[in-house]
Design a protein that fits this description.
Blueprint: H1 17-25, H2 28-31, E1 54-56, H3 59-64, E2 72-78, E3 83-89, H4 105-121, H5 125-156, H6 171-182, E4 189-193, H7 211-221, E5 228-232, H8 236-248, H9 255-286, H10 304-329, H11 340-360, H12 363-394, H13 396-400, H14 413-427, H15 443-455, H16 461-478, E6 486-488, E7 494-496, H17 507-519, H18 526-542, H19 553-566, H20 571-583, H21 593-606, H22 613-630, H23 639-652, H24 657-673, H25 683-696, H26 701-717, H27 727-740, H28 743-759, H29 771-783, H30 787-806, H31 816-827, H32 834-851, H33 861-874, H34 879-895, H35 905-917, H36 923-939, H37 949-960, H38 967-985, H39 994-1007, H40 1012-1027, H41 1033-1042, H42 1045-1051
Parallel strand pairs: 1-2
Antiparallel strand pairs: 2-3, 4-5, 6-7
Helix pairs in contact: 1-9, 1-11, 4-5, 4-6, 5-6, 6-8, 6-9, 8-9, 9-10, 9-11, 10-11, 11-12, 14-15, 15-16, 15-17, 16-17, 17-18, 17-19, 18-19, 19-20, 19-21, 20-21, 21-22, 21-23, 22-23, 23-24, 23-25, 24-25, 25-26, 25-27, 26-27, 27-28, 27-29, 28-29, 29-30, 29-31, 30-31, 31-32, 31-33, 32-33, ...
């Protein structure tokens, strides 16, 4: 039988509540959702029209505009003897001139979405919601502005060529925002006041229940002391649908966009029905004696969950209708074809609604749901049958036109095989063409070619393999059903009539195409395309085109591996859905060990970017173990499964991952002692555990990793070859010591590696140090406390590398990583020779790597940043000009095509900081000039050069500590400080930190004379700082030096003394780790 996800089956309307709950819980859509804490409802998007003005007002009034709640003004700020343009707004950011550069709106949206992705990795759901909503708001504002501009142009007749025309929002921006919305947690459940009193049963208030449990029950049922009912707020699916509505006004969305939103609505339906199930269960257990009237607002018939489930299901159906309409309106473009998964998802949720309606006795809604399922089944068959049959009716050339690789006019079996074979042979010289007897071409030859495409991966492997499958199906549908017959000549000789052999696809054909998609490089939707093969197979079975061909466990395992290798967001969750499908007893295809290990491996692959991946992989392992204990015939965990879970913890760098990895290691050893022969730790297992300890950053991790290494050495010496430590084992422990700064232990371990390699030289010792080993030791020197000794030892180690390489040890060479580590040692040493040495090393790397084209020693952006950092720390009078020269060289090399030396934000920021530390005249203006160069480089397309808050803070620092005595220079510095702070405050992607406020206050103190105007300015800046939650120690210190004791105490609400009981909101956003010394 085909699984329920790919073949329709009508659910039995007589399922019990327990069975229905199981159906909802095991649904792939329900399992794909991630558990997040409940959040408050999203605020509605408000559109406020702002007027931009340019006025000249006193400085005290100018900064009072910080407090304006809803106006946007651009004001003339009057300094000591100059006028500074300063803009301020409370809602819509503007640049210095008071106007937003529309070209940056897309970057702003992208920045918000990137921040949201980082928030996910940190489990900061509130930050994720905030950033996604900000991106959503920016996109909607962009659409409003574009429409407003279009309307104005229509009224005028011709747009003014001198105005900055708003560009139309790009399709990629819509897709990114929709993706960000769909990545949000599930819909929120909140409460709303009910005017009618809610029945509070004595059963709920019974003494057997604690107040906390009673409140939880009330919250679950919508019953509380405040007479509140549950309310499902505007969720991510509805918001994504609203963005899709805007998108349709400008573009023709791809079918995959509709598929994703439909899947999200389907998940909402199952979520709501799951809540409804729990609601009924709790009502049945707690409120058995409580009679509920037909019109009671808490009845399941009128439950908000039940209503929301129907609403989401209808929205999913409407989206599918719109997707079909767009497909027809665009000439049946394959990119707009609704996927079979959308049909299956929509039918699944309507089947679930039919079950719910049946249990409630609501025949009308049950019939409506079942009729919808029936209609969707027929529509799916119609759409895909039409897609398959169009070319057949219009002739051979039309039939060929839908293929991706096979050209039109290639009509015969021989021509198709010859084309595919020749294409693969030309692309890969190692592929040898097999001779084929054209009279015996059949399924085997097509299968062999399809697997060749998988074994010799090419960019066309997946598309061409699918073309071959579709050609085979075209031949099957076109062929005559008459069987092959034999006739006899009059003399008795037999003669076979020349009937055409039809290469009919079989299960191996399907699996070969799936594998070809899995190995195809540089195709982002390969996993979706592979999964669609199984969906298409279901269609071919249902319409009678391909009877008897069924997917097996290899088919589904290949789909899981496709998602594992895809590297896209949500891939592991989708792989888990497929595994859950195999676990469903409604199908004859059951998971094996490869199914489980591949799914766990998918979580390991995504653990770099998805928080909690290790925990999710372990949940699958636990489920596998539990199922095998209950049924001995089911697959049992093996070492490969445990290794996949351990790798998910190791790659995730999650705090606590190292501890959990050790616990899993002990569990493996216990299972092996209990008779699980396939569960036995090997060297790879222990390497992963050591890596998890190294990456988790926990206390004592390096010592624990070293203990495991010693255990491996001891076991191997006793004859256990499975635990022989390899080079990776030693390098992991070296890296652990390096991160701790334990240079002595790292040095000792490196020496032990050489001794071990000498002892095992005859047996091919594999633990001999390589370049990475030396780099790890150099990094340990850089982090050690004894900087003087560290530099000397680092130079000795570098000379040893050079000597060994010259002696023929090719595994040890001074490459870019070694040079970078040596530069880093000197940069952090504080030695007076550091400036000379790092510039000498950089010049050598440029000579060899850039001018000499030796890619092994080519400098990178990290190299230049380390040198610039050494210059900045040196405080040498030459550092000012040398840092500018190095930055110029970076920009020149990058413009000449050397991508590795791309100027980055850190490089620019270090140069600005070096300028700020110097005693040069005009350093504030020069620092501002570098900031503008940085912004220009970013606008040219160098995303790595986007300014950071540290860049702006460094410019403020340069202005704040301008040399005293020259009134004109101080005026220029004050202008730079005001403009830079204003630009930071108005930035689309940055906001001031407590360091920004504190440094700006220091600039006011050093550059403005004491006066009432200055006091008013300080008050305004401080109030803004309080509202932003950025009152840190630096702000308080500079405030105390700026204000009189009376003003200082007034601003701090009358609190005197050294310790102030300040409101927590004043410092809510302070990260003291950002604090720096200025001056």
């Amino acid at each position: 039988k085909m699984p329920s996800r790919f073949l329709d089956h009508r659910p039995s309307p007589t399922r019990t509540m327990k069975q229905r709950s199981l159906f909802l819980i095991t649904s792939p859509l329900a399992l794909s959702k991630v558990a997040f804490s409940l959040l408050p409802p999203s605020l509605p998007l408000k559109r406020t029209q702002h007027s931009h003005q340019h006025v000249s007002i006193p400085i005290s009034c100018a900064y009072e505009t910080f407090d304006a709640p809803s106006t946007s003004t651009s004001t003339r700020l009057v300094g000591p003897s100059s006028t500074v343009l300063l803009s301020s707004t409370a809602e819509t950011p503007t640049d210095i001139a008071g106007a937003v550069e529309t070209s940056n709106v897309a970057d702003t949206i992208s920045t918000h979405l990137q921040r949201a992705a980082r928030a996910v990795s940190k489990s900061d759901v509130t930050k994720q919601e905030y950033e996604v909503e900000a991106a959503e708001r920016a996109l909607v504002q962009w659409v409003d502005d574009y429409r407003g501009q279009s309307a104005a142009d229509d009224n005028i007749g011709t747009p003014d060529a001198n105005t900055n025309a708003q560009p139309k929002p790009d399709v990629a921006v819509f897709e990114d925002v929709i993706g960000g919305l769909l990545s949000l947690p599930p819909p929120y459940v909140t409460s709303t006041t009910n005017a009618e009193p809610i029945d509070t049963s004595d059963d709920i208030n019974s003494q057997s229940n604690s107040p906390e449990i009673t409140q939880q029950i009330r919250s679950l049922l919508g019953k509380s002391k405040n007479n509140a009912n549950i309310l499902i707020t505007n969720n991510k699916s509805e918001r994504a649908t609203q963005v899709l509505d805007l998108m349709e006004a400008f573009h023709e969305p791809m079918g995959s966009i509709y598929d994703d939103i439909i899947a999200s609505h389907g998940g909402d339906v199952l979520d709501c029905l799951s809540h409804l199930t729990m609601e009924q269960l709790v009502v049945g257990e707690i409120d058995e004696d409580v009679s509920v009237d037909d019109d009671d607002t808490t009845s399941t018939q009128d439950s908000p969950f039940y209503q929301q489930a129907w609403k989401s299901a209808k929205t999913a159906l409407q989206l599918l209708n719109r997707s079909e309409d767009l497909y027809r309106e665009t000439g049946k473009s394959s990119s707009r074809l609704p996927s079979i998964s959308s049909y299956v998802t929509t039918m699944d949720v309507w089947k679930a609604l039919a079950i719910g309606a049946e249990e409630k006795g609501d025949e009308k809604k049950r019939d409506e749901a079942l009729e919808t399922v029936k209609s969707l089944r027929q529509r799916r068959l119609d759409v895909y049958s039409l897609e398959d049959g169009e070319g057949v009716e219009q002739g051979n050339n039309s039939a060929r036109s839908k293929y991706s690789v096979i050209p039109s006019g290639t009509n015969t079996v021989e021509d198709v095989l010859a084309f595919a074979t020749n294409l693969l042979s030309k692309s890969d010289s190692t592929y040898k063409i097999r001779e084929i007897d054209s009279s015996k071409i059949g399924t085997w030859h097509f299968n062999q070619l399809i697997f060749d495409l998988a074994n010799y991966p090419q960019p066309f492997s997946g598309p061409l393999a699918q073309d071959l499958l579709e050609f085979m199906m075209y031949a099957v549908q076109k062929a005559s059903p008459t069987p092959r017959r034999h006739t006899k000549k009059p003399n008795g000789d037999s003669k076979q009539r020349n009937y055409h052999i039809v290469p009919k696809p079989n299960t191996d054909t399907i699996n070969g195409v799936l594998k070809a998609w899995m190995v195809t490089p540089n195709i982002s939707d390969a996993a979706r395309r592979a999964e669609s093969i199984l969906a298409q197979l279901a269609v071919w079975q249902s319409n009678g085109s391909l009877w008897g061909v069924q997917p097996n466990v290899v088919s589904y395992n290949t789909c899981i591996n496709c998602w594992k290798e895809s590297g896209i967001n949500g891939a592991a969750a989708r792989a888990t859905e497929i595994l859950t499908l195999l676990e469903d007893s409604s199908t004859d295809v059951y998971p094996d060990v490869v199914s489980y290990s591949s799914c766990m491996g998918a979580w390991a692959e995504c653990s770099y970017r998805e928080v909690g991946a290790g925990r999710k992989a372990e949940e699958i392992l636990t489920r596998m173990y539990t199922r095998s204990k209950e049924d001995d015939s089911l697959p049992k965990p093996n070492t490969r499964c445990f290794n996949a879970v351990l790798l998910a913890y190791a790659n995730g760098s999650w705090t606590g991952g190292g501890k959990r990895a050790l616990e899993l290691l002990r569990f493996m050893e216990r299972l092996h002692s209990e008779g699980y022969d396939d569960v036995r730790p090997d060297a790879y297992t222990l390497n992963i555990v050591m890596k998890a300890l190294t990456n988790c950053g926990e206390s004592g991790a390096a010592q624990k990793a070293n203990q495991i290494l010693r255990r491996m050495e001891e076991s191997f010496s006793k004859g256990d070859t499975r635990l022989q430590p390899d080079l990776l084992s030693y390098n992991i422990v070296l890296d652990a010591f390096a991160k701790k700064g334990d240079a002595e232990s790292a040095e000792s371990l490196l020496n032990q590696m050489y001794l071990r390699a000498e002892r095992e030289s005859q047996s091919g010792g594999i633990a001999k140090p390589n370049t990475y080993s030396y780099t790890a030791l150099l990094n340990a020197y850089a982090r050690s406390e004894d900087k003087v000794a560290a530099v000397r030892k680092a130079e000795d180690l570098f000379n040893d590398i050079e000597r060994r390489y010259a002696a023929g040890e090719t595994d040890v060479r001074a490459d870019t990583s070694v040079y970078n580590a040596l530069i880093n040692c000197w940069a952090k040493s504080g030695d007076r020779k550091a400036l000379y040495r790092v510039t000498q090393i950089l010049n050598l790397m440029e000579e060899l790597g850039l001018h000499g084209d030796d890619s092994e020693v080519q400098p990178t952006s990290r190299t230049y940043c380390s040198v610039l950092d050494a210059l900045s720390r040196s405080r040498n009078w030459k550092a000012y000009q040398q840092s500018l020269d190095i930055l110029d060289r970076m920009e020149e090399f990058y413009s000449n095509g050397y991508e590795s030396v791309r100027p980055c934000a850190r490089a620019y920021s270090i140069v600005i900081s070096t300028i700020a530390r110097s005693r040069k005249r005009g350093k504030a203006v020069k620092a501002q000039e570098i900031l503008h160069r940085m912004e220009s480089e970013y606008r040219k397309g160098n995303s790595a050069a986007r300014p950071t808050v540290y860049s702006y803070n460094a410019v403020l620092n340069a202005a704040a500590y301008t040399s005293k005595g020259d009134e004109k220079e101080q005026e220029e510095a004050f202008k730079v400080a005001c403009l830079t702070f204003d630009q930071l405050r108005m930035s689309d992607y940055l906001q001031p930190t407590h360091v920004s406020f504190g440094t700006f206050l220091k600039a006011i103190q050093n550059l403005m004379p004491s006066s009432d105007v200055r006091d008013d300015l300080v008050k305004s800046v401080f109030r803004r700082c309080c509202r932003d939650g950025q009152v840190g120690d630096l702000v308080l210190r500079n405030m105390k030096g700026l204000s009189s004791p009376e003003v200082y105490q007034t601003l701090l609400k009358g609190e005197a003394g050294g310790n102030y009981d300040l409101p927590k909101s004043w410092s809510a956003n302070v990260r003291e780790s950002f604090n720096v010394h200025v001056g």
